[in-house]
């Protein structure tokens, strides 16, 4: 369990984190989303006891991070932003050092190190110094040290940043597997990562918590959610088609574009409509009755990018 209450951090009067409250339960994979400078890393640093809050309370497994720093750190695995490491060591030496610092029992140290080397596919670079490794491998060593002591809480600041597509996929799979009996909190700038691994998303901007929802819940806030796109063959008059569609009481808006010989129309449902398939059905009926040559039809998914921009007031991810 993690409980964060009225958490704030000021840097010389500048509020990097501004009165944030939330709690997280085991099994939750919580994604922090927010533009650069939103306060994601600062929140994660406070949560893992790396910096002290200006005000507010953080409890991990019932213990205060501020009053019981050592006891709470035992529950937490932390991958800092950029994965800082001791670069003159090899990955196994570094992991052995971390295991000792973490107080992993001597009897299980070797097997713990072997487990994480295997999980992060570090075998091929085990003989190299960390400063000789590529960015992606360095990050994998960073993730390995975060999970070495099998913590209850994993705090991962941009875990897949700089990884190749195969490794992104592998690390997301690893996070999903680890989340069965852990709390995972990660930050990311990749919106599809939130849908792929998180079951909850917090949107943060200017140090404030602006949304706390499931990825699907966020997607549903997009105007594209359940909109219907029709590709119509030649001979359909764009203006007349748009007018007819707009006349339907379930339709809020219509966007039409001409592509080569076809006409593409996207039809947006009115907000008040609880079952958006009613609109989709009406539109297809109208197309049939009007004898429009429907080449294809597609139900749109909500676009997280638009939702993110709306919530954060136009900032990029
Ligand atoms: N040690 C510090 N001293 C002064 N200001 C700081 C310090 N650390 C962070 N800040 C400021 O606090 C704000 C939040 O920074 P933070 O690193 O938490 O953002 P972030 O959401 O992680 O952004 P990014 O997506 O770029 O990683 C920024 O304006 C940053 O400049
Ligand atoms: Mg950051």
Any overview of this molecule?
The chain is of the alpha/beta class and 317 residues long. The protein has two domains: 219 residues, P-loop containing nucleotide triphosphate hydrolases (Rossmann fold, 3-Layer(aba) Sandwich); 73 residues, 2-Layer Sandwich (Alpha-Beta Plaits), CATH 3.30.70. The chain is built from eleven helices and 14 strands. The strands form three sheets. The chain has a six-stranded mixed sheet with strand order 6-7-8-3-9-10, with helices on both faces. A four-stranded antiparallel sheet has the order 2-1-4-5. A hairpin with a 2-residue loop joins strand 1 and strand 2. The longest helix is centred in the middle third of the chain and has 14 residues. The radius of gyration is 25 Å and the shape is elongated. The model has no long low-confidence stretch (mean pLDDT 94). The site of adenosine-5'-triphosphate (ATP) has 11 residues, from helix 1.
């Amino acid at each position: 369990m993690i409980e964060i209450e009225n958490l704030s951090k000021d840097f010389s009067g500048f509020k990097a984190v501004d009165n944030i409250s939330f709690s997280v339960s085991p099994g939750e994979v919580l994604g922090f989303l927010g533009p650069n400078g939103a306060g994601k890393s600062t929140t994660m640093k406070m949560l893992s006891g790396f910096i002290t809050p200006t005000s507010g309370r953080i409890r991990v497994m019932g213990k205060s991070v501020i009053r019981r720093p050592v006891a709470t750190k035992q529950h937490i695995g932390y991958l800092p932003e950029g994965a800082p490491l001791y670069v003159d060591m090899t990955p196994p030496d570094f992991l052995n050092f971390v295991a000792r610092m973490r107080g992993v029992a001597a009897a299980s140290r070797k097997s713990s190190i072997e487990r994480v080397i295997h999980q992060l596919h570090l075998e091929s670079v085990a003989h190299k110094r960390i400063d000789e490794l590529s960015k992606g491998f360095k990050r994998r060593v960073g993730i390995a040290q975060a999970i070495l002591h099998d913590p209850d809480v994993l705090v991962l600041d941009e875990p897949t940043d700089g990884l190749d597509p195969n490794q992104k996929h592998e690390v997301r799979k690893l996070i999903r597997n680890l989340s069965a009996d852990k709390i995972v909190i990660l930050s990311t700038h990749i919106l599809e990562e939130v849908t792929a691994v998180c079951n909850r998303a917090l949107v943060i901007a200017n140090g404030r918590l602006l949304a706390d929802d499931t990825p699907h819940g966020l997607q549903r806030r997009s105007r594209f959610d359940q909109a219907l796109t029709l590709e119509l063959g030649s001979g359909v008059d764009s203006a007349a088609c748009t007018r007819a569609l707009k006349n339907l009481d379930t339709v809020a808006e219509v966007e039409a574009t001409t592509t080569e010989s076809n006409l593409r129309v996207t039809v947006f449902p009115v907000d008040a409509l609880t079952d958006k398939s009613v609109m989709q059905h009406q539109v297809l009926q109208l197309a049939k009755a009007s004898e429009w040559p429907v080449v294809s039809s597609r139900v749109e998914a909500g676009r997280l990018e638009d939702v993110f921009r709306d919530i954060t007031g136009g900032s990029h991810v």
